[in-house]
Amino acid sequence: MDIGATKFSDFLPFILNDISSSCFVAIDFELSGLAFPPNGPQINTQTVQERYTEAKAAAERYQILQVGLTICHENSKNVVYTLKPYNINLSPIAQPETEVNRDWTFGSRSMEFLLSHGFSIDTMCSSGVRYLSRVEEESAIKRATERCFRPTVPNIKIQEDDFECLEFLGSARLAINEWLAQGETRQSWLNIPPPTSLLTAPSEVPGALSNAQKRLLHQLISLEYPDLTSRGASTFVQIEIRNQQCEQISFEARLKSKMERVRNHIGFRWIVEALIGGNLEELDIEAFRPLMKKTDAPVLEIKQLADRMKNRLKQSRPVLVGHNLFCDLLFFHRCFIGPLPDTLGGFNAVIHNLFPVLADTKYLATHDCGALAPESSLEDLNRNLAHVEYPKIEINPGFTKYKLRKRTHEAGYDSMLAAMAFIKLAGNLQRNPAMFTQKVQQPTILAGPHMPPSLFASVMQPLDRRGSPNSEFSNFFYLESETPPEIDEKYIADQGTSLDDTGDRQIISLASRGFLVPRLGTVFWAIYGNKLRVFGTQERMIQVEPQPKVELLVDV
């Protein structure tokens, strides 16, 4: 499903809810450029630290143009995985009122590749979803806060022979002093120049103040009249007695308004925050109203619904799946969070904090390969897995864009392929215990009750092949009807399940036989989890884990 700027706010609560009840989320990015290896033979093979430095430079230079997001729900009762693939163009243009200036950089080889696969730069700019990274949001709020205070403009230096400016300031100073001398009988404000009567002859009407004259008046008040405040209007400047309490109230109101406007432009990063268990407290409660069937639902009910969803996102983050995840994770952090750490160790630590459990399908597919790296593109991988009949996979009925149609190198399509590959690889690896030997001793798996015959039959029966016989999709089925997003309120943030081990013996039995994805904490994840494939380096992979804490010993 394509999501553009006009649809985004309507679909956002549904996406957040689906993430909160998913077992894993697969991502894929299309980028404006990559770090290509230099031409010619390489004498020495890079270390992963050297590759990280090279990839980091590319992530700091180029941008994410398109996001693929496939959300997967597990139905353990029917033993099936349901996918919802989204394709989201991102706009590199930040809203002007945020005062965020974002440079664009495009690599010609990357853009030629994307354009050859139907990517539209016009669509990206005109209808792409906007966003602010965490660092950009902080910068925008800082600027908004500064603008709520009286502006600090450099003083205009007036020369001794600048008689025009001196005369203007002298007249203004005289008017202000006369106004102050009136004491309690004076008006509460003074306009310079004063408004004229409608009966005044046109020739006697004073001219409007120029911008330079307004600036001189503001400077005069700031330097010589600390108990006064000035406010510019279209043709004059209004002067009042300073009221600290009113100024503070006014400042807080302006700041609140500006911060709300900034947060209205966070855009796609709300989805990012949901994926990493981040802060969604500032997301307007009204954003969740589309989830309610009652259009007139009270705010309290909406808040309760939103709180349940936010708590679930905090407590049980979904596994993040991707193909060749290393590069995508660098761009993810640089684009949506902030600057990348200088070292690979620092990167590992921050990524592990954001995504405690990762699954790189490239590593799963090549875990036991030798020095000759096998072909492991997403297309090849799914073609090779076409014969794998279970775990069973279906596409949600509201997501029919990729039904019988290949859209290779479109982010949404590729994220769907990554999700399919992960499900099949995980089940296949679990069904072949020999792949675990000489790595980790296989633990004793609880046998649990035998699978009921009816359930076993439903798992083993041939899948409904409604697609093209030669399609890599021939091993899973689509639901025919297409429906708009609609959710029964009682299932909000309670549908689906994570991959956590709940102790259900039937689920453990199904997972141990490869009918379901292995539960977290099992030997499968000890071997394959949090490992990223990085071919072309000495180590050939990266283990993502937190940095060990170092205790400093101090001599007393």
Give a description of the structure.
- 39% of the residues lie in helices and 12% in strands.
- With 556 residues, the chain is α/β, with parallel strands linked by helices.
- The protein folds into 2 domains: 2-131 and 265-543, Nucleotidyltransferase, domain 5; 133-262, no CATH class.
- A hairpin with a 4-residue loop joins strand 3 (64-75) and strand 4.
- Helix 5 (134-148) packs antiparallel against helix 8 and helix 6 (163-181) packs across helix 7 (211-224).
- The N and C termini lie far apart (64 Å).
- Mean pLDDT is 78; it is low at 196-205, 437-484, 487-491 and 550-556.
Q: Summary?
A:
The chain has helices at residues 5-20, 48-61, 108-116, 121-127, 134-148, 163-181, 211-224, 244-263, 269-275, 299-315, 325-337, 344-354, 361-366, 378-384, 411-431, 453-460, 505-512, 523-528, and strands spanning 2-3, 24-31, 64-75, 80-89, 189-192, 228-232, 237-241, 319-322, 358-360, 392-395, 477-478, 531-533, 541-543.
